[in-house]
Specification:
alpha/beta; Aspartate Aminotransferase, domain 2; Aspartate Aminotransferase, domain 1; 14 helices; 12 strands
């Protein structure tokens, strides 16, 4: 072979079967091949294992999918390029013209927008309720054939706790699929409930370092098999290197989540005692609404703390800009602490009454607690609070 041919057909290096790498390699390849056409066709028909094209699957992606399914206590998983991608792909795959979706005011803004704007274009209707309105949920399901119900627990940003057992029971009684965005609670929680599909933004606690995006849908083998062709067609594939980074992040997932929850508890308890703070929203506080329900559903209460400042939006602005250790930016679950002030809350699609029902006030602030020393975080919060009196 001449040099231009050699560089495109390099020597193959095969690792012996009894000489496994401790860390699985990144399969940074879009294409796979078999020795002949017949074996390729057998794989494409599902008659033998193997890989063909990255948009369908890839060994690095598949390892991540199997790991995530195990953590959530389900049979299978499909990953994609972002958390919103997982939500969008699942909604598009599971609904058709004429279907009805039940969703909630206390929901991640892009989820609401996907349902209210994108699905509406294709003739999918919806009902928007409060996550705490079980009577309303029962009434809708009893009178309106509903394809699916999508919800969160804890909710973003105020950490409201859904009664998952009640919601899934009502859904089953009426033949409605349940989709739970389980990002805040984490991959190791809520697996005991009869949820049909768990959705996760892997960008958050799974990856954990704020440097890679990904999303996942986790459920039964039958449901994931139905979803996978549509995820493939929609094209939002997760890159193998991103999958590798998320898999690596999972090695420290439990250590990080435990420490972030412990620090979040301390931050929440500190904020409760501050005169400038009107209310604190954290499931681990005994006085928090539905705290007892949270304790029955969760073993840990997450790394997100939200609270309301008495001085409103201007006080929140001064407080936010006085902080030194909290980055003013989106997302949660990173090793560094983050803050979203009320000026950056995604409520533009809600009416004033819906904002009130959601519990969002002019001084509502969301913190994502990182891995800094909690004493340093408390000192930073204290000095920032001092700037607003």
């Amino acid at each position: 072979m001449k040099p231009p041919t050699q560089v495109n057909h390099p020597p193959e290096v095969t690792v012996p079967a009894d000489n496994r790498p401790v860390v699985a390699p990144i399969h940074q390849t879009v294409k796979f091949e078999f020795e002949n056409i017949d074996e390729t066709l057998r794989m494409l028909r599902g008659e033998r294992p193997g890989f063909f094209y990255q948009r369908n699957s890839n060994p690095t992606l598949r390892q991540l999918e199997l790991t995530l399914a195990q953590l959530q206590g389900r049979e299978d998983c499909v990953v994609c390029a972002s958390g919103v991608g997982a939500i969008a792909n699942a909604l598009l795959s599971l609904t058709k013209q004429g279907d009805h979706v039940l969703c909630f005011i206390e929901t991640y803004g892009p989820t609401r927008q996907l349902i209210r704007r994108l699905l509406a274009k294709f003739g999918v209707t919806h009902t928007l309720l409060s996550i705490e309105d079980l009577a309303g949920v029962e009434g809708v399901l009893a009178h309106t054939p509903t394809r699916l119900m999508i919800f969160e627990s804890p909710t973003n940003p105020l950490n409201r706790i859904a009664d998952i057992a009640a919601l899934t029971r009502l859904a089953r009684e009426h033949g409605t699929l349940t989709l739970l965005d389980n990002t805040f609670a984490g991959l190791h929680q809520h697996g005991q409930f009869e949820v049909d599909l768990y959705l996760h933004s892997l960008t958050k606690f799974a990856a954990g370092h704020g440097d890679v995006m990904g999303g996942a849908a986790i459920g039964s083998a039958e449901l994931i098999t139905r979803l996978r062709p549509d995820f493939t067609l929609l094209g939002g594939v997760l890159d193998p290197h991103a999958a590798f980074l998320i898999q690596r992040g999972l090695k420290t997932y439990f250590v990080r989540y435990r420490e972030q929850c412990a620090s979040a508890q301390r931050v929440a308890e500190f904020l409760v005692a501050q005169p400038a703070v009107e209310d604190v929203h954290y499931p681990g506080l005994g006085a928090a609404p539905r705290a007892a329900l949270a304790r029955t559903q969760m073993s840990q209460f997450g790394g997100v703390v939200s609270f309301d400042l008495r001085g409103g939006a201007e006080a929140a602005r001064r407080f936010t800009e006085a902080l030194q250790l909290f980055a003013i930016t989106a997302s949660v679950g990173s090793t560094e602490s983050l803050i979203i002030p009320p000026q950056m809350m995604g409520t533009r699609d809600l009416t004033p009454e819906q904002v009130r029902i959601a519990g969002l006030g002019p001084g509502t602030v969301r913190l994502s607690i990182g891995l800094e020393d909690p004493d340093d975080l408390l000192a930073d919060l204290q000095q920032a609070l001092a700037t607003i009196g």
